[in-house]
Prior knowledge:
Elements: H1 2-29, E1 35-37, E2 40-42, H2 45-60, H3 68-74, H4 77-88, H5 92-103, H6 105-110, H7 113-145, H8 148-158, H9 162-170, H10 172-199, H11 205-226, E3 232-234, E4 237-239, H12 242-245, H13 247-261, H14 265-274, H15 278-294, H16 297-331, H17 334-354, H18 357-369, H19 372-396
Antiparallel strand pairs: 1-2, 3-4
Helix pairs in contact: 1-10, 1-11, 1-19, 2-8, 2-9, 2-18, 3-7, 4-7, 4-16, 5-16, 7-15, 9-13, 10-11, 11-19, 13-17, 14-15, 14-16, 15-16
Amino acid sequence: MVDLALISVPLVAAVVGWFTNWLAIQMSFYPVQFLGVGPIGWQGVIPRKAEKMAHICIDRTLQQFGDLNAVYRKLEPEKIVEQVVSQVGPRMDEYIDEVMYELQPVLWDNLPLFVRNRIYRWGREQLPKRIESLVEDFGDDLNDLVDLKALLSRELAKHPDLMNRIFQQAGSAELKSVINRGAIIGGLLGAILAPIWSAYPAPWLLPVGGFVVGFLTNWIAINLIFRPLRPRRILFWKLQGLFLKRQPEISDVWATLVAEELITVEKVADAMINGRRGDRTRAIIQKHLRPLLDNSVVMKLTAQVTVGMTGYTDLKKAMNQKAVLATHDVFSDPAFNRDRAPVVASALAEQMKALGPEEFQDILRPAFREEEVQLMLVGGVLGLLAGAIQFLILNSL
């Protein structure tokens, strides 16, 4: 029985260490939505803390540039101008028709063709200049026009699994390593426990030892992700927290996923127009579109004579509304978003790589720090049950 205990106790402890670490990882990600009744239940640590982590990420990275305008300049505003002109230019006649048929359908149908053609041509000629000045103006005020934290909160509320995917792809190797090390740590603790139990086979020793194994393996595993902060050499080994050791690679993966899933050109444009600062965005659009009517004598006189001063004002309002809708269509182009995403990712990754170890771990650690005790207690309880079952089996033998 003593020989059996010396073999089985470390083996069971290794299984407990592996399983409790695996379970702790699963509980970090799942369930995505709260599962339970009232206050009793569980939601994955990362989905529950996704908004907080995303805000910390923005605070630690994008703000390192000094402002969002610097990121915008990296997007190459001239590319944005080209995108808008290429999308809106071919449809300029259609947009003008839609506005006029909405306001004055009979009048627009009866307007001489040469007048309508003159209006179409003037709109197409003025578009590049108007868009260029509009894009430049946006670049100067982007910090005030876009509430990034509100954007992230909205997207993560709609897609709580996003942060899960970011963690799983960015740290897949580290998470597997944590699970496997749980078996090694559990086995070593079991090797210490086995001779103690052989010498003092008290009924409580294996359950208590199992609790300690389950609790400690989870505690050690979590700390292996983040400690030590900086490389330390111990004998022949160079040790550093698993996530910290691969900061450059994790930064690239994290930044790419954030740029493709959260901070896309389309979503930023939508936040500018429909966010709580949307009125200011629409005012800027109006400021730059007004010359399309006011600076053309033919268009202004034609509009005022045919629809009157009140109708002319309504016409400008309708043009502004159409411009806002056109903006959404322009920036929802998947190809353009895919083209610009690497630029955002590069800017974000550059700043994440430049963070010190303390700042880098603060992006990831807060989500776990608040839940560590619960995860370790779950591991301890499972270890206790495993120890109790092992005691019953060994005692019967």
